[in-house]
């Protein structure tokens, strides 16, 4: 499996669809889940992540892989892209899907959370290669906005 692409609206609106998407992961194991979601809030920066060490969910905490975040930050800096860490954001698109991962996957895993505010071709193309490199071997999940070009192509290769 290359990736899971799931909707990110509230559970009331798209929970059933997201549940079907994440069912494909049922019983699998991984050490890292790399996540890309849109950022709907007006925070500065084109590529963002969390300042926190973990996301709290009703099913327990999901720890952020600090080493993978640091590696991605370095890769993006080489390309002249900012990677803004937020402590108190109000974005839902990433965290609303975390319980699905906790139910579907077996064992412990960490996450590499990335939220994309600017979905310009320049930002998207410059994010794709470093994100793939820093998430090598990880399960990848996307919650795309309609214009997000980080989707797998129909031939199964990655953008």
Can you walk through the features of this model?
With 159 residues, this protein is of the alpha/beta class. It has one domain (3-142): LigB-like (Protocatechuate 4,5-dioxygenase, Chain B). The chain contains 4 helices and 8 strands; from the N terminus they run βαββββαβαβαβ. It has helices at residues 11-23, 66-78, 98-104, 121-134; strands at 3-5, 32-38, 47-50, 54-57, 60-63, 84-86, 110-116, 139-142. The radius of gyration is 14 Å and the shape is globular. The model is unreliable at 143-159 (pLDDT under 50).
Describe the secondary-structure layout.
Layout lengths: L2 E3 L5 H13 L8 E7 L8 E4 L3 E4 L2 E4 L2 H13 L5 E3 L11 H7 L5 E7 L4 H14 L4 E4 L17
Parallel strand pairs: 1-8, 2-7, 2-8, 3-6
Antiparallel strand pairs: 3-7, 4-5
Helix pairs in contact: 2-4
